[in-house]
Design brief:
Layout lengths: L2 H19 L6 H21 L15 H23 L16
């Protein structure tokens, strides 16, 4: 790489680091993680759905999918949502944010 390309790359990374410090508290990756977590939560609730028992007893209300799998996926989705909100991107080592450059 030429010196011009390296400095342009360093400036781009420094700009990304600076936008983390001020401006938007959540980045693009945070929203992708939260979207995936939301999809997991919806999937968990959809797995818990089923036909109502009605007037007669329906043993399907005690199926493993409705009692174990659905709630587990929804719970993991809620944990993943917290992870997605708190995730912080990391700046590359040796890159100084633009505010600190001379």
């Amino acid at each position: 790489m030429t010196e011009k390309n390296i400095s342009a790359n360093n400036n781009r990374v420094a700009d990304e680091c600076r936008s983390e410090v001020k401006g938007k508290p959540l980045g693009k990756l945070n929203f992708w993680l939260m979207g995936a977590a939301g999809a997991m939560i919806i999937l968990g609730f959809l797995l818990m759905l089923g036909a109502p028992s009605g007037d007669t007893f329906n043993p399907d209300i005690f199926s493993t999918r409705r009692i174990v799998v659905g709630p587990t996926i929804a719970f993991i989705g809620y944990i993943f949502m917290g992870f997605g909100i708190m995730w912080r991107g990391h700046c590359k080592k040796g890159i100084v944010p633009v505010e600190k450059q001379n």
